[in-house]
């Protein structure tokens, strides 16, 4: 593309590269879904076929490094960067090990220049990186893995639990996926900082959001901004009136759902989030909450508490489709919630986990104005207090670790 003599040749190489990248992703991740869906559709017409499906293991992290490659190609095509001549530098950009399997989804314009320049060991950055790794480990091993035990127990036996317990199970999954994914991101960012590399921030305390638009500015930031820059804006963004904004918003959320997995559950999850955000798109309030909630204050107002609670509740409801394995099980779970037993005391109340979650939320709340919750914790306090806190986290990781659980986003 860089050496193309005219636009036609440049466009040819661009679309060839995009097709190859998406082709690999489509074959490995979506072929079976489309074939099975086609066979099921024509079965309603009385025609029955036995489709040939691929029996291969999905390459770990394929969705992430495919998007790395696509951003590089698109940025070259748009003239934002020049083609990289050093194959090693390009390979490091695509396969930098901390982010390879679960992100964040990096941009060539951000990561390549850091790879190319000489880096010296920075003690301050290394300490900060280790601090973020520690917090990420706590999120994953203590919060996510403990929540996973109870979430799995409740979701896998939904028919045996009361509606109130099913709500608790959905809340546990919400904290599981947050602790799991943001914990991985913290570990990735902290590890990269040891090498003098600053990766894109991927989470900014999303469960303290006051509306769905704010939630999506704070959750999986690298993916949200990727879709904004490489799909939403090229489709016309918000320049073509209300209809175009609505259309483009539904497109990016449906594609986001499909990116997460070849399942109708993920598509419904994306569709629900598109519906959630529609009022703010239609009434142009999607950029109302750009600041940090209760900035500079210890406590939020009642209005902010209500807004955060409503946003969290809508998000938890949508997570049900993300967690269940089929639409039938999702609707079965939801019907179990909206039953008379919703107003009973949950039959499963893990007191230790609820205490750990309370401590976790408090720490996250007081650290919400930082890059990660404990980025500035105790900086002005005596060394013994600061190190006591770090050791407490290490001890908690050993004492309260849940049973080993695979990172959720490894499947994507």
Automatic annotation (TrEMBL):
UniProt entry keywords in alphabetical sequence: Acyltransferase, Cell membrane, Membrane, Transferase, Transmembrane, Transmembrane helix
Compartments, as annotated in UniProt: Cell membrane
InterPro entries on file: Ac/AlaTfrase_AlgI/DltB, AlgI, MB_O-acyltransferase, MBOAT_fam
Topology versus the membrane: Multi-pass membrane protein
Database matches in Pfam families: MBOAT
Superkingdom of the source species: Bacteria
GO term, biological process aspect, one: alginic acid biosynthetic process
Keyword Zinc-finger included in the entry's annotation: no
Main location: membrane
One GO cellular component, as annotated: plasma membrane
Gene Ontology molecular function terms on file: acyltransferase activity
Membrane-spanning intervals of the chain: 12-32, 52-75, 158-178, 266-284, 305-322, 342-363, 384-402
Family label: Belongs to the membrane-bound acyltransferase family.
Protein name as it appears in the record: D-alanyl-lipoteichoic acid acyltransferase DltB (MBOAT superfamily)
């Amino acid at each position: 593309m860089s050496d193309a003599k005219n636009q036609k040749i440049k466009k040819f190489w661009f679309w060839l590269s995009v097709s190859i990248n998406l082709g690999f992703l489509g074959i490995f991740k979506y072929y079976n879904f489309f074939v099975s869906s086609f066979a099921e559709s024509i079965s309603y017409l009385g025609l029955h076929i036995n489709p040939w499906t691929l029996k291969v293991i999905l390459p770990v992290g394929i969705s992430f490094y495919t998007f790395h490659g696509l951003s590089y190609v698109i940025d070259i095509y748009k003239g934002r960067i020049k083609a990289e001549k050093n194959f090693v530098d390009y390979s490091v950009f695509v396969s930098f090990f901390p982010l390879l399997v679960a992100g964040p989804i990096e941009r060539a314009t951000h990561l390549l220049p850091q790879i190319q320049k000489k880096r010296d060991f920075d003690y301050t950055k290394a300490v900060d990186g280790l601090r973020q790794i520690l917090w990420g480990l706590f999120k994953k091993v203590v919060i996510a893995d403990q929540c996973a035990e109870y979430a799995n127990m409740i979701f896998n036996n939904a028919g045996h639990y009361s509606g109130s317990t099913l709500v608790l199970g959905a809340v546990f999954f919400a904290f599981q996926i947050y602790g799991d994914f943001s914990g991985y991101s913290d570990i990735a960012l902290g590890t990269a900082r040891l090498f003098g590399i600053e990766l894109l921030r991927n989470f900014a305390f999303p469960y303290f959001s006051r509306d769905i638009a704010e939630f999506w500015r704070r959750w999986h930031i690298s993916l949200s901004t990727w879709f904004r820059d490489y799909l939403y804006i090229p489709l016309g963004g918000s320049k073509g009136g209300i209809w175009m904004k609505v259309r483009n918003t539904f497109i990016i959320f449906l594609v986001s759902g499909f990116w997460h997995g070849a399942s109708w559950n993920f598509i419904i999850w994306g569709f629900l989030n598109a519906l959630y955000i529609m009022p703010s798109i239609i009434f142009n309030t999607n950029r109302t909450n750009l600041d940090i909630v209760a900035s500079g204050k210890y406590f939020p107002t009642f209005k902010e508490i209500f807004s955060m609670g409503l946003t969290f509740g809508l998000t938890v409801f949508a997570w049900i489709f993300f967690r269940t394995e089929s639409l039938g099980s999702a609707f079965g779970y939801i019907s179990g919630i909206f039953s008379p037993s919703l107003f009973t005391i949950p039959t499963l109340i893990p007191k230790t986990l609820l205490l750990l979650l309370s401590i976790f939320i408090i720490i996250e709340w007081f650290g919400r104005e930082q890059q990660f919750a404990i980025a500035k914790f105790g900086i002005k306090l005596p060394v013994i207090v600061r190190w006591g806190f770090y050791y407490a986290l290490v001890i908690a990781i050993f004492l309260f670790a849940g049973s080993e659980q695979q990172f959720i986003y490894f499947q994507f």
